[in-house]
């Protein structure tokens, strides 16, 4: 799934929760992806976990795509 497809999927899912408006769904998706990115960074720093750069890049790109929706 491309970052754009994932961004759309997340926004759509969060827009359906509690019948929220699309703008609110975008904010929820943005927060969720932001948390994923922070966890990747923390785990790599705190635990020396080897997170592939491609995983980090993918989620950063999803975040960018959400911003552009």
Summary keywords:
single chain, 69 residues, mainly alpha, 3 helices
Give a written overview of the molecule.
- By secondary structure, the chain is an all-alpha fold.
- The protein has one domain (3-68).
- Helix content is 80%, strand content 0%.
- It contains three helices and no strands.
- The protein has helices at residues 3-16, 22-46, 53-68.
- The chain is elongated.
Question: What's the short version?
Answer:
By secondary structure, this protein is mainly alpha-helical.
What string, H for helix and E for strand, traces the elements in order?
A: HHH
Write down the overall mean pLDDT: 85
Number of domains: 1
End-to-end separation: 17 Å
Topology:
Elements: H1 3-16, H2 22-46, H3 53-68
